[in-house]
Amino acid sequence: MQQPIAILDSGVGGLTVAKEVMRQLPREKIIYFGDTARTPYGPRPADEITRFTREIVDYLIQYRPKMIVIACNTATAVALEDIRSRVAVPVVGVIHPGARAANSSTQTGVVGVIGTEGTISSGAYENALKQLSPTIEVVSLACPRFVTLVEQGNFRSEETFNTVKTSLGSLQAGNLDTLILGCTHYPFLAETIGEVMGKDVRLISSDGETAREISTILHDRNRLERAEDMPVHQFFCSGDPVMFKRIAQQWLGEQIELTPIVWQVPQIANRTVG
What we know:
single chain, about 270 residues, alpha/beta, 7-stranded mixed sheet, 4-stranded parallel sheet, 11 helices, 11 strands, about 20% strand
């Protein structure tokens, strides 16, 4: 029986990572959990974020995943090591992959990081970047309103542009040439963020680098899927299934089907690839 890769997030943001995993590893089965009923995680206290993450992992573990991906920057910053200590399978976060990509990208040595309040206050990205390059300058900024825009499916509008422009104003005067989108929700707004920051600033999303790390770990463990049949992915959400379905289909570019399940998380989406 094919063992899936479990991907979890506070909402729809982790779909950016899921999409990259599907692209790079098309034969791997994915189970995705978006905690849309309790999003956003950013303003929540660390112990609550850890508890939520444990609850999701405890549920997903029944599907015998061969790897768990915490595709939420806030949960990665707060709960990654806790989850690693509780499960026997590899657990991957999204902060170190993003930091590596940014460190390779920057020419000026000045890197901006935008994220939720929880991610920014944790200093996780700054610590990861300093480990890679002690002389790097990191400019961090919390952008809490971005997650709400994405969870509402409001990717491109005058309101979105004005919110992004107002939020990022303090970053535009600096010498940064690389900006980490330190929340997996933010790639949904990448076009607008790019317009505001200008063509000289490269945007870094952790999705591609995280997918490559997943591939490397599975290869090293001889756990890459070899089955010829294309997988059927499963998507769980704890909140509004209509909004989740609309955003997921728009981002993934394919239809998904929603059916109820018996649990406190009321929705599961199935998608056949191919």
